[in-house]
């Protein structure tokens, strides 16, 4: 187990009730799961793509999820006219982690990535708290409900937390819930 069941910060004393609470709680649990998978590693470990031939690293996943949060909540729900984060990094969605000339990754790079991700998560929580789930938002030539977007975010985190599980297990053998 990654953490003992009775110490798992994702466990709630009471079950969620109602659609909004269930969706928000699942989304927050996956956000916390990604953070847990990254705990206790060095900057270089966080930036190591451990499942060849994939270039996915834990730090790349954090950067990518900052981009996803930013795009869906700022650009789509709020309608802000912003470029996608990390669009200058070769179009890989933030997965490429900046490295020093010697190939190492600095603690500052890690801090910047986590600060950005946490800021985007905090902003997304505020946006979601202020909008109805049946509110329609424009995505390309379609309109979708905010609830669909939240379900997509849960799916996005679930998929990438699976990736994080594999990467972490390859790095130090640690795996689990």
Question: Could you explain how this protein is built, in words?
Answer:
The protein has a single domain (25-172), classed as Four Helix Bundle (Hemerythrin (Met), subunit A). Helix content is 53%, strand content 5%. It has helices at residues 19-38, 43-46, 58-77, 107-129, 146-172; strands at 136-139, 142-145. Strands 1-2 form a two-stranded antiparallel sheet. The N and C termini lie close together (6 Å). It holds the Pfam family MST.
Topology record:
Blueprint: H1 19-38, H2 43-46, H3 58-77, H4 107-129, E1 136-139, E2 142-145, H5 146-172
Antiparallel strand pairs: 1-2
CATH class (first level) name? Mainly Alpha
Task: Give start-end ranges of low-pLDDT stretches.
Answer: none
| Discrete helix count | 5
Strand content: under 5%
Based on the coordinates given, report the CATH architecture: Up-down Bundle
Distance between the termini: 6 Å
Radius of gyration: 17 Å
Largest sheet: 2 strands, antiparallel
Integer tally of domains: 1
Determine the structural class based on helices, strands and strand pairing. Answer: mainly alpha
Give the strand line-up of the largest sheet. 1-2
The helix fraction, in percent, is 40-55%
**Number of strand segments:** 2
Query: What would the CATH topology be?
Result: Four Helix Bundle (Hemerythrin (Met), subunit A)
CATH superfamily: dinb family like domain
SSE series: HHHHEEH
Average pLDDT reading: 90
Q: What sort of overall outline do the alpha carbons produce when their principal axes are compared?
A: globular
């Amino acid at each position: 187990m990654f953490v003992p069941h009775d110490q798992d910060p994702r466990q709630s004393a009471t079950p969620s009730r109602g659609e909004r609470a269930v969706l928000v709680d699942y989304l927050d649990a996956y956000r916390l799961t990604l953070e847990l998978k990254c705990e206790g590693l060095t900057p270089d470990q966080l930036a190591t793509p451990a499942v060849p031939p994939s270039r996915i690293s834990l730090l790349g996943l954090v950067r990518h999820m900052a981009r996803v949060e930013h795009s869906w909540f700022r650009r789509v729900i709020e309608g802000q006219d912003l470029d996608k984060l990390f669009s200058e990094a070769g179009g890989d969605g933030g997965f490429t982690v900046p490295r020093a000339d010697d190939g190492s990754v600095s603690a500052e790079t890690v801090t910047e990535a986590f600060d950005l991700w946490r800021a985007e998560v905090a902003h997304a929580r505020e946006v979601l708290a202020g909008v109805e789930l049946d509110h329609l938002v424009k995505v390309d030539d379609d309109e979708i409900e905010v609830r669909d977007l939240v379900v997509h975010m849960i799916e996005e985190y679930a998929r990438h937390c699976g990736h994080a599980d594999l990467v972490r297990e390859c790095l130090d053998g640690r795996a689990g819930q």
